[in-house]
Amino acid sequence: MAIIVLTQLQKKMSGDFGPGDAVPYPKAVHTAPADSDVPGDPADLTFWGKSTVGMEPHSSSPKPGGTWYPGPLSRFKCDACDAVLRSQ
């Protein structure tokens, strides 16, 4: 089964409240099965049932024997997605 790593982003304004667009920051890292019709795209729901609408595919792919989430984003990993993957 192919796994797609997704980043749920939140936008924050700069601390000085100056002009400019909000900057996206990671809120959570989820995982979803690949869409059966479009390989490389995520299915409509994550492994634990959250909608993938608005989530961005992450450039990393899970490595055999490694974690499904990218190391630098480990503090943002979704515990629910992790629990579902560990139970399979």
Task: Give a written overview of the molecule.
With 88 residues, this protein is mainly beta. It has one domain. It has one helix and three strands; from the N terminus they run βββα. The chain has one helix spanning 79-87, and strands spanning 3-12, 23-33, 56-57. It has a three-stranded antiparallel beta sheet with strand order 2-1-3, with no helix packed on it. The longest helix is centred in the C-terminal third of the chain and has 9 residues, at 79-87. The chain starts with a strand and ends with a helix. The mean pLDDT is 87.
What's this model, at a glance?
It is built from 1 helix and 3 strands.
Q: What amount of the residues lies in strands? A: 25-35%
Number of helices: 1
Oligomer: single chain
Low-confidence stretches: none
What is the average of the pLDDT values? 87
Helix content: 10-25%
Give the helix/strand class.
mainly beta
**Major sheet attributes:** 3 strands, antiparallel
Q: What is the CA-based Rg, rounded?
A: 14 Å
Keyphrases for this structure?
mainly beta, 1 helix
Fold topology:
Blueprint: E1 3-12, E2 23-33, E3 56-57, H1 79-87
Antiparallel strand pairs: 1-2, 1-3
